[in-house]
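We treat protein structure as text, and this decision shapes the records that our systems exchange. This encoding replaces a full spatial description with a residue-level series of whole-number codes. Below, we set out a record of this kind in full and without editing:
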Amino acid sequence: MKIVVSTHQGVLYNEEIDYVVVHDQDDGEYAIMENHIPVVSVMEEGYLKLVKGSDELYVLIVSGILEFHDNFCTVTVQEAQAGRTPESTRAHLAEIRRERLERNRKESTDFTEKEKELREHIKKANAGNL
């Protein structure tokens, strides 16, 4: 069976696999194997365990939709991170989120400073006083 995992940033995973185990915090865990009945599942947070031979890859999912039919699994998510264990994947995603939050905080601070400078320049130029 084929699986494609994608986010708004692009395709994270696109491979042939033997089966996928879907773990959702709300609905528990179930496996999808070749020739499985069609499935549509909404996931708030959870992970996929992708199995190909003896290899296993975990993909942590945040806010996504999984659709399976005709031996093709499409997973479209807001955020995803792949790793060898659920724990390492979760830790890596947490680090990415911390970095993103810090970058957003810095950009917000820079914007506030630029806005203050702009107001001072407008005041000095007597803009608005005709």
